[in-house]
Amino acid sequence: MAYFNHTIDGSALDLTHLEPRSLSFYVQKLTRDLTVYVRFSNHCFTCKFDDSRHTVADLIMDHRQRRAYDAERYDLSRRLPTIVDALPGSSVYLTATDRNYVYVATVTTENGQQYPVYFNLRRAPREHPAQLLMMIESAYPVADRRQVLAGTTKISFAVLCAKVYRGERVQPKARR
Question: How many domains, the chain?
Answer without folding.
Answer: 1
